[in-house]
Design goal:
1 helix, 5 strands, about 70 residues, 5-stranded antiparallel sheet, mainly beta, globular
Length: about 70
């Protein structure tokens, strides 16, 4: 994976809570937890589940999630 965003925080998914269309994904990045709001479809496409390594990618005020 290559991405232009410089704020890439690697961690482990500790919680995924799906709503009607949007999910909240919590990633532990070494003692601190970052929460991202992404679509349920993105959760499924990325294969996000508790225990999986993932990146919180911060660009401006938005948080995206990326996986290897």
């Amino acid at each position: 994976m290559k991405i232009s965003a410089r704020n890439q925080l690697k961690g482990k998914v500790v919680e995924v809570v799906k709503g009607a269309t949007t999910a909240h994904v919590r990633i532990d990045i070494g003692g601190s937890v970052v929460t991202a709001s992404i679509t349920n479809q993105a959760v499924d496409e990325l294969g996000l589940e508790v225990g999986r390594e993932a990146y919180a990618v911060v660009k401006a005020s938005d948080v995206m999630v990326a996986v290897d």
